[in-house]
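Sanity check

After download, print the first record. It should look like this:
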Amino acid sequence: MICKSYERPSIIVTPCIFADHSALRTFDEFMGDRRIDMQQGTLLVAAREDEVVGYVKVAPSKFMGWPLLSILCVAPAVRRQGVGRKLVESAVSVPQWLRLYTSTEASKNVMRALLQTCGAREVGFADDLNMSGEREILFRLK
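Expected structure tokens:
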């Protein structure tokens, strides 16, 4: 018996367009209206087999004048399959960013591990920054 090796479908990252909105709404866990982000051109989406499965938002000058990767969201059904990593790598590769920062709460071990695999460097922290009062860890991606 010959077994075929399973290959994951490739992940394609592109700028978000308004037609992606209905797909994003099926898994978006964050507050806000992504249509505004789309209009501002701050979103990239990841698609697998023509299905939108994740997005990343980069706010151009929200962190002390530097761009901030402010949201990373992956559909629950495809988490831990390389989608988040591909989105972070795509955001980092945008040539207009001289630097790129992000942050996550100290308890978000999955996100912290993802950032580590993407080469992010921890550069500091802030306490009592968010509503939970949890420590926010700051990272430089680029």
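If your output differs, re-run the checksum step. Summary of this record's structure: The chain has four helices and seven strands.
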